Amino acid sequence: MKLLGVVVSSGAIYYGALAVPDAAQGISHIAGTPERLLPAAGLTGAQRLADTHQRLAQDIRVLQPDAVTVVATRKNNQWVYRDAFERISMISALMLTCVEQGIPVEEWTTERIGKLVNTPALKLASFDHKAVGFERIPTYWNVGRGPAFAAAMAYATETRSTSGEGQGS
């Protein structure tokens, strides 16, 4: 099974793609997969949204995940409309892409993710990169990829526990 965690942060979409084999094998990152998507700088409004949607669709076709977990937005009282609109547009484009490609997509809170990966919700950026097979902290880890991988790992953990895999290990 392939799982994809996604974070929208600092105007970009960050990916965390995991291979989740049966319980006898470890979970690890999928080498060579896209790391992030930046919306086109030269486009605005509907054109920017359409372009983001098309590029997300391309990335999702390449990744071919069995499920996508989006890290929910934490409350931020300092947002201006423009920033909130951009974030909501990116998340909406991702969800639409998943629905179009028949891929289950869920939004999970940082609290739910943190509980499943034993990392405090506010510290998901410090999720252990070695837990998903990286020797060194990868590019964009602290700005989005760490929490994206934590989300994918949380989904894998919950899926394995509800299916009975890994119990008694």
Task: Itemize the secondary structure elements and their pairings.
Blueprint: E1 2-9, E2 12-19, E3 28-29, E4 36-37, H1 45-63, E5 67-71, H2 81-100, E6 105-108, H3 110-117, H4 141-163
Parallel strand pairs: 1-5, 5-6
Antiparallel strand pairs: 1-2, 2-3, 2-4
Describe the structure.
The structure is a single chain. The protein is of the alpha/beta class. The protein has a single domain, classed as Ribonuclease H-like superfamily/Ribonuclease H (Nucleotidyltransferase, domain 5). 41% of the residues lie in helices and 17% in strands. The chain is built from four helices and six strands. Strands 1, 2, 3, 4, 5 and 6 form a six-stranded mixed beta sheet that branches. Strand 2 and strand 3 form a beta hairpin. Helix 1 crosses helix 2 and helix 3 packs across helix 4. The longest helix has 23 residues. The protein is globular and about 45 Å long. The relative contact order is 0.23.
Summarize this entry quickly.
The chain is 41% helix and 17% strand. It has 169 residues and is α/β, with parallel strands linked by helices. Strands 1, 2, 3, 4, 5 and 6 form a six-stranded mixed beta sheet that branches.
Features:
six-stranded mixed β-sheet, 4 helices, Nucleotidyltransferase, domain 5, 169 residues, alpha/beta, globular, 41% helix
For the record, give the distance between the C-alpha atoms at the N and C termini, rounded to a whole number.
Answer: 20 Å
Can you tell me the CATH class?
Answer: Alpha Beta
**Helix- and strand-based class?**
alpha/beta
Relative helix content: 40-55%
- Main sheet properties: 6 strands, mixed
Q: In one word, what is the shape?
A: globular
**CATH homologous superfamily classification:** Ribonuclease H-like superfamily/Ribonuclease H
CATH topology, what is it called? Answer: Nucleotidyltransferase, domain 5
CATH architecture: 2-Layer Sandwich
Number of helices: 4
Mean pLDDT level? 91
**Number of DSSP E strands:** 6
Order of helices and strands: EEEEHEHEHH
Q: How much beta, percentage-wise? A: 15-25%
Number of domains: 1
